[in-house]
Design a protein that fits this description.
Elements: E1 3-15, E2 21-24, H1 34-49, E3 53-58, H2 63-72, H3 78-93, E4 102-111, E5 114-122, E6 124-130, E7 136-142, E8 149-154, H4 155-160, E9 168-171, H5 176-187, E10 189-191, H6 195-212, H7 217-237, E11 241-242, H8 243-248, H9 259-265, E12 273-274, H10 278-282, E13 286-291, E14 294-299, E15 307-310, E16 315-318, H11 323-336
Antiparallel strand pairs: 1-2, 1-4, 3-9, 3-10, 4-5, 5-8, 6-7, 8-9, 11-12, 13-14, 15-16
Helix pairs in contact: 2-3, 3-5, 6-7
Protein backbone atom coordinates (compact mmCIF):
# COMPACT_ATOMS: atom_id res chain seq x y z
CA UNK A 1 0.00 0.00 0.00
CA UNK A 2 1.33 3.43 -0.96
CA UNK A 3 1.22 5.43 2.27
CA UNK A 4 3.23 8.48 3.34
CA UNK A 5 3.27 8.99 7.09
CA UNK A 6 3.55 12.53 8.49
CA UNK A 7 2.84 12.06 12.19
CA UNK A 8 1.72 9.28 14.52
CA UNK A 9 1.44 9.14 18.30
CA UNK A 10 0.00 6.93 21.04
CA UNK A 11 -1.62 8.14 24.27
CA UNK A 12 -3.29 6.02 26.93
CA UNK A 13 -6.45 6.25 28.97
CA UNK A 14 -6.34 4.09 32.10
CA UNK A 15 -8.56 3.51 35.13
CA UNK A 16 -7.34 4.39 38.63
CA UNK A 17 -8.40 2.74 41.91
CA UNK A 18 -11.49 4.95 42.01
CA UNK A 19 -12.46 3.71 38.54
CA UNK A 20 -11.76 7.15 37.08
CA UNK A 21 -10.17 7.73 33.70
CA UNK A 22 -6.63 9.05 33.74
CA UNK A 23 -4.49 10.23 30.80
CA UNK A 24 -0.95 9.16 30.13
CA UNK A 25 0.37 11.42 27.38
CA UNK A 26 3.41 10.53 25.32
CA UNK A 27 5.91 13.41 25.35
CA UNK A 28 6.98 13.05 21.71
CA UNK A 29 5.65 11.64 18.48
CA UNK A 30 6.71 8.21 17.30
CA UNK A 31 9.50 7.86 14.77
CA UNK A 32 8.39 7.57 11.16
CA UNK A 33 10.00 4.19 10.51
CA UNK A 34 8.98 0.88 8.97
CA UNK A 35 7.16 -0.24 12.15
CA UNK A 36 4.99 2.86 12.48
CA UNK A 37 4.27 2.92 8.73
CA UNK A 38 3.19 -0.73 8.92
CA UNK A 39 0.97 0.09 11.90
CA UNK A 40 -0.77 3.00 10.19
CA UNK A 41 -1.07 1.09 6.91
CA UNK A 42 -2.79 -1.78 8.75
CA UNK A 43 -5.10 0.62 10.59
CA UNK A 44 -5.99 2.26 7.28
CA UNK A 45 -6.60 -1.10 5.60
CA UNK A 46 -8.79 -2.52 8.35
CA UNK A 47 -10.79 0.66 8.73
CA UNK A 48 -11.35 0.91 4.96
CA UNK A 49 -12.62 -2.68 4.91
CA UNK A 50 -15.17 -2.10 7.67
CA UNK A 51 -18.61 -2.27 6.15
CA UNK A 52 -20.91 -0.06 8.20
CA UNK A 53 -19.75 3.53 8.48
CA UNK A 54 -21.45 6.74 9.45
CA UNK A 55 -20.77 10.13 7.89
CA UNK A 56 -20.38 13.43 9.70
CA UNK A 57 -19.22 17.02 9.41
CA UNK A 58 -17.85 19.51 11.92
CA UNK A 59 -20.25 21.85 13.68
CA UNK A 60 -19.61 25.53 12.99
CA UNK A 61 -18.35 26.12 16.54
CA UNK A 62 -16.20 22.97 16.69
CA UNK A 63 -13.14 23.65 18.81
CA UNK A 64 -11.59 20.42 17.56
CA UNK A 65 -11.85 21.54 13.92
CA UNK A 66 -10.27 24.88 14.93
CA UNK A 67 -7.30 23.02 16.43
CA UNK A 68 -7.12 20.83 13.34
CA UNK A 69 -7.06 23.89 11.09
CA UNK A 70 -4.23 25.32 13.20
CA UNK A 71 -2.36 22.04 12.83
CA UNK A 72 -2.73 22.06 9.07
CA UNK A 73 -1.61 25.68 8.87
CA UNK A 74 1.47 25.02 11.00
CA UNK A 75 0.26 27.04 13.97
CA UNK A 76 0.12 23.91 16.18
CA UNK A 77 2.52 21.00 16.19
CA UNK A 78 1.14 17.46 16.12
CA UNK A 79 2.24 16.65 19.69
CA UNK A 80 0.37 19.65 21.13
CA UNK A 81 -2.67 19.03 18.94
CA UNK A 82 -2.93 15.36 19.95
CA UNK A 83 -2.56 16.18 23.65
CA UNK A 84 -5.33 18.78 23.51
CA UNK A 85 -7.57 16.37 21.61
CA UNK A 86 -7.04 13.47 24.03
CA UNK A 87 -7.75 15.69 27.05
CA UNK A 88 -11.02 16.67 25.40
CA UNK A 89 -11.76 13.01 24.64
CA UNK A 90 -11.19 12.09 28.31
CA UNK A 91 -13.59 14.82 29.45
CA UNK A 92 -16.28 13.63 27.05
CA UNK A 93 -15.76 9.92 27.69
CA UNK A 94 -15.86 10.34 31.49
CA UNK A 95 -19.52 11.42 31.23
CA UNK A 96 -20.61 7.89 30.37
CA UNK A 97 -20.76 4.79 32.56
CA UNK A 98 -19.35 2.55 29.83
CA UNK A 99 -16.05 4.47 29.74
CA UNK A 100 -13.23 2.03 29.18
CA UNK A 101 -9.47 2.23 29.18
CA UNK A 102 -7.57 1.95 25.93
CA UNK A 103 -4.80 3.26 23.73
CA UNK A 104 -5.57 6.31 21.60
CA UNK A 105 -3.84 6.25 18.21
CA UNK A 106 -3.66 9.44 16.17
CA UNK A 107 -2.03 9.50 12.75
CA UNK A 108 -1.71 12.07 9.97
CA UNK A 109 -0.82 10.52 6.64
CA UNK A 110 -1.43 10.44 2.90
CA UNK A 111 -2.76 7.50 0.90
CA UNK A 112 -3.50 7.57 -2.84
CA UNK A 113 -3.01 11.36 -2.96
CA UNK A 114 -5.53 11.94 -0.15
CA UNK A 115 -4.58 13.35 3.26
CA UNK A 116 -6.15 11.72 6.31
CA UNK A 117 -6.31 12.09 10.07
CA UNK A 118 -6.99 8.79 11.84
CA UNK A 119 -8.22 8.71 15.44
CA UNK A 120 -8.92 5.41 17.12
CA UNK A 121 -9.27 4.06 20.63
CA UNK A 122 -7.88 0.54 20.53
CA UNK A 123 -8.31 -2.11 23.21
CA UNK A 124 -5.13 -3.26 24.91
CA UNK A 125 -5.01 -7.03 25.37
CA UNK A 126 -2.85 -9.10 27.69
CA UNK A 127 -1.19 -12.29 26.52
CA UNK A 128 1.83 -14.54 27.03
CA UNK A 129 4.86 -14.98 24.82
CA UNK A 130 7.76 -17.43 24.62
CA UNK A 131 11.18 -15.81 25.00
CA UNK A 132 14.38 -16.83 23.22
CA UNK A 133 15.29 -18.71 26.38
CA UNK A 134 12.02 -20.68 26.05
CA UNK A 135 10.51 -19.15 29.14
CA UNK A 136 7.13 -17.44 29.43
CA UNK A 137 6.62 -13.73 29.93
CA UNK A 138 3.60 -11.43 29.92
CA UNK A 139 3.05 -9.01 27.06
CA UNK A 140 0.49 -6.40 26.01
CA UNK A 141 -0.62 -5.76 22.44
CA UNK A 142 -3.08 -3.60 20.53
CA UNK A 143 -6.03 -5.58 19.20
CA UNK A 144 -6.27 -3.74 15.88
CA UNK A 145 -8.72 -6.20 14.35
CA UNK A 146 -11.32 -5.39 17.02
CA UNK A 147 -11.15 -1.62 16.85
CA UNK A 148 -14.65 -0.21 16.79
CA UNK A 149 -14.23 3.23 18.36
CA UNK A 150 -12.59 4.95 15.44
CA UNK A 151 -13.01 7.84 13.04
CA UNK A 152 -11.13 9.09 9.98
CA UNK A 153 -11.16 12.57 8.52
CA UNK A 154 -10.56 13.07 4.82
CA UNK A 155 -8.48 16.22 5.21
CA UNK A 156 -8.27 16.82 1.46
CA UNK A 157 -12.05 16.78 1.09
CA UNK A 158 -12.55 18.89 4.23
CA UNK A 159 -10.17 21.58 2.99
CA UNK A 160 -11.45 21.69 -0.59
CA UNK A 161 -15.17 21.18 0.13
CA UNK A 162 -15.96 22.24 3.72
CA UNK A 163 -19.72 22.10 2.99
CA UNK A 164 -19.52 18.36 2.33
CA UNK A 165 -21.51 16.10 4.66
CA UNK A 166 -19.16 13.15 4.39
CA UNK A 167 -15.51 14.08 4.93
CA UNK A 168 -15.62 12.63 8.43
CA UNK A 169 -16.45 8.93 8.73
CA UNK A 170 -16.80 6.76 11.81
CA UNK A 171 -17.20 3.04 12.40
CA UNK A 172 -20.71 1.83 13.11
CA UNK A 173 -20.91 -1.55 14.78
CA UNK A 174 -21.83 -3.03 18.10
CA UNK A 175 -20.88 0.22 19.84
CA UNK A 176 -22.40 2.49 17.22
CA UNK A 177 -24.64 4.13 19.81
CA UNK A 178 -21.65 4.87 22.03
CA UNK A 179 -19.84 6.54 19.15
CA UNK A 180 -22.84 8.71 18.38
CA UNK A 181 -23.02 9.68 22.06
CA UNK A 182 -19.43 10.65 22.72
CA UNK A 183 -16.89 10.15 19.95
CA UNK A 184 -18.54 12.64 17.61
CA UNK A 185 -19.31 14.93 20.52
CA UNK A 186 -15.62 14.97 21.38
CA UNK A 187 -14.87 16.30 17.87
CA UNK A 188 -17.99 18.50 17.96
CA UNK A 189 -19.28 16.93 14.78
CA UNK A 190 -22.83 16.36 13.55
CA UNK A 191 -24.10 13.32 11.68
CA UNK A 192 -24.02 14.14 7.98
CA UNK A 193 -24.99 11.85 5.14
CA UNK A 194 -27.54 9.28 6.35
CA UNK A 195 -26.73 6.17 4.32
CA UNK A 196 -29.74 4.17 5.49
CA UNK A 197 -32.09 7.03 4.67
CA UNK A 198 -30.54 7.49 1.20
CA UNK A 199 -31.06 3.79 0.46
CA UNK A 200 -34.65 3.88 1.72
CA UNK A 201 -35.38 6.88 -0.50
CA UNK A 202 -33.81 5.05 -3.45
CA UNK A 203 -36.01 1.99 -2.84
CA UNK A 204 -39.12 4.18 -2.65
CA UNK A 205 -38.11 5.97 -5.87
CA UNK A 206 -37.77 2.59 -7.61
CA UNK A 207 -41.29 1.59 -6.52
CA UNK A 208 -42.72 4.97 -7.56
CA UNK A 209 -40.99 4.83 -10.95
CA UNK A 210 -42.40 1.36 -11.60
CA UNK A 211 -45.90 2.55 -10.68
CA UNK A 212 -45.57 5.76 -12.71
CA UNK A 213 -44.38 3.78 -15.73
CA UNK A 214 -47.37 1.43 -15.39
CA UNK A 215 -45.21 -1.69 -15.52
CA UNK A 216 -46.88 -5.06 -15.11
CA UNK A 217 -45.93 -7.46 -12.32
CA UNK A 218 -43.23 -9.28 -14.27
CA UNK A 219 -41.69 -6.04 -15.54
CA UNK A 220 -41.61 -4.65 -11.99
CA UNK A 221 -39.86 -7.76 -10.74
CA UNK A 222 -37.27 -7.49 -13.48
CA UNK A 223 -36.75 -3.78 -12.79
CA UNK A 224 -36.24 -4.40 -9.08
CA UNK A 225 -33.80 -7.21 -9.84
CA UNK A 226 -31.74 -4.96 -12.11
CA UNK A 227 -31.53 -2.35 -9.36
CA UNK A 228 -30.57 -5.03 -6.84
CA UNK A 229 -27.90 -6.52 -9.13
CA UNK A 230 -26.31 -3.12 -9.66
CA UNK A 231 -26.35 -2.16 -5.97
CA UNK A 232 -25.02 -5.56 -4.95
CA UNK A 233 -22.18 -5.41 -7.47
CA UNK A 234 -21.22 -1.95 -6.17
CA UNK A 235 -21.31 -3.23 -2.61
CA UNK A 236 -19.15 -6.24 -3.46
CA UNK A 237 -16.63 -4.05 -5.26
CA UNK A 238 -16.47 -1.55 -2.40
CA UNK A 239 -17.89 1.18 -4.65
CA UNK A 240 -20.82 3.49 -4.12
CA UNK A 241 -24.21 3.56 -5.80
CA UNK A 242 -24.12 6.28 -8.45
CA UNK A 243 -27.69 7.25 -9.33
CA UNK A 244 -26.88 8.47 -12.84
CA UNK A 245 -24.86 5.31 -13.58
CA UNK A 246 -27.68 3.15 -12.21
CA UNK A 247 -30.19 4.94 -14.42
CA UNK A 248 -28.01 4.19 -17.44
CA UNK A 249 -28.47 0.47 -16.84
CA UNK A 250 -32.26 0.67 -16.43
CA UNK A 251 -34.93 0.99 -19.13
CA UNK A 252 -36.68 4.34 -19.48
CA UNK A 253 -40.43 4.86 -19.14
CA UNK A 254 -42.73 4.80 -22.16
CA UNK A 255 -42.48 8.60 -22.23
CA UNK A 256 -38.69 8.35 -22.50
CA UNK A 257 -37.94 9.51 -18.94
CA UNK A 258 -35.03 7.66 -17.37
CA UNK A 259 -34.72 6.92 -13.67
CA UNK A 260 -32.22 9.73 -12.98
CA UNK A 261 -34.49 12.34 -14.59
CA UNK A 262 -37.44 10.96 -12.65
CA UNK A 263 -35.72 11.25 -9.25
CA UNK A 264 -34.48 14.75 -10.06
CA UNK A 265 -37.87 16.07 -11.21
CA UNK A 266 -39.78 14.47 -8.35
CA UNK A 267 -37.43 15.91 -5.72
CA UNK A 268 -36.28 12.74 -3.98
CA UNK A 269 -33.16 14.56 -2.71
CA UNK A 270 -30.80 11.72 -3.49
CA UNK A 271 -27.07 12.35 -3.38
CA UNK A 272 -25.23 11.77 -6.65
CA UNK A 273 -23.61 8.73 -5.01
CA UNK A 274 -23.74 6.97 -1.64
CA UNK A 275 -22.81 3.57 -0.16
CA UNK A 276 -25.27 0.73 -0.64
CA UNK A 277 -27.08 -0.62 2.42
CA UNK A 278 -27.44 -4.40 2.37
CA UNK A 279 -30.60 -4.47 4.47
CA UNK A 280 -32.42 -1.90 2.35
CA UNK A 281 -31.49 -3.38 -1.03
CA UNK A 282 -32.47 -6.88 0.09
CA UNK A 283 -36.08 -5.68 0.20
CA UNK A 284 -36.02 -5.37 -3.59
CA UNK A 285 -35.97 -9.12 -4.07
CA UNK A 286 -37.04 -10.64 -0.74
CA UNK A 287 -39.64 -10.42 1.99
CA UNK A 288 -38.15 -10.81 5.44
CA UNK A 289 -39.81 -10.68 8.82
CA UNK A 290 -39.59 -12.11 12.31
CA UNK A 291 -41.61 -12.01 15.50
CA UNK A 292 -43.70 -14.19 17.75
CA UNK A 293 -41.27 -17.07 17.44
CA UNK A 294 -41.30 -17.02 13.64
CA UNK A 295 -38.79 -15.93 11.01
CA UNK A 296 -39.87 -15.82 7.36
CA UNK A 297 -37.67 -15.15 4.34
CA UNK A 298 -38.75 -15.71 0.75
CA UNK A 299 -38.16 -14.37 -2.75
CA UNK A 300 -40.63 -11.61 -3.63
CA UNK A 301 -41.41 -13.29 -6.95
CA UNK A 302 -43.13 -16.11 -5.04
CA UNK A 303 -45.85 -13.77 -3.73
CA UNK A 304 -48.99 -14.57 -5.64
CA UNK A 305 -47.40 -17.71 -7.13
CA UNK A 306 -46.65 -20.10 -4.27
CA UNK A 307 -47.19 -17.74 -1.35
CA UNK A 308 -50.47 -15.91 -0.81
CA UNK A 309 -51.37 -13.28 1.76
CA UNK A 310 -54.94 -12.56 2.94
CA UNK A 311 -54.96 -9.14 4.60
CA UNK A 312 -58.46 -9.60 6.09
CA UNK A 313 -57.54 -12.72 8.04
CA UNK A 314 -53.81 -11.86 8.30
CA UNK A 315 -53.03 -15.31 6.91
CA UNK A 316 -50.06 -16.42 4.83
CA UNK A 317 -50.58 -19.54 2.73
CA UNK A 318 -47.57 -21.44 1.41
CA UNK A 319 -47.99 -23.98 -1.39
CA UNK A 320 -45.06 -26.30 -1.94
CA UNK A 321 -43.19 -26.52 1.37
CA UNK A 322 -39.37 -26.78 1.09
CA UNK A 323 -38.40 -30.50 1.27
CA UNK A 324 -36.16 -30.18 4.33
CA UNK A 325 -38.85 -28.27 6.22
CA UNK A 326 -41.51 -30.73 5.12
CA UNK A 327 -39.39 -33.63 6.40
CA UNK A 328 -39.01 -31.93 9.81
CA UNK A 329 -42.74 -31.28 10.02
CA UNK A 330 -43.67 -34.86 9.15
CA UNK A 331 -41.19 -36.27 11.67
CA UNK A 332 -42.61 -34.06 14.43
CA UNK A 333 -46.22 -34.91 13.53
CA UNK A 334 -45.45 -38.63 13.51
CA UNK A 335 -43.62 -38.50 16.82
CA UNK A 336 -46.41 -36.52 18.51
CA UNK A 337 -49.23 -38.78 17.27
Amino acid sequence: MSLTLSNVILHQLTKNDQDELEIHLRNQTLENDASTEDLVAELHRIYSSKGAKGFALFAQDSEFSHWLKQLRQGELDFLTFSGMAVKRLQTELAKYPFAEAGTVVMAEYQSLATDYLFIGMLPTCHSMKVTEQLSISATDYLDIAKMDIVARIDLSSWETDPESKRYLTFAKGRVGRKIADFFLDFMQADVGLDVKEQNQVLMQAVEDFCADSRLDKEEKQQYRKQVYDYCNSQLQAGDEVAVKELAGELPSSDEGTNFYEFTSKQGYELEESFPADRTAMRKLTKFVGSGGGMTLNFDSMLLGERIFYDAETDTLTIKGTPPNLKDQLLRRLNSDS
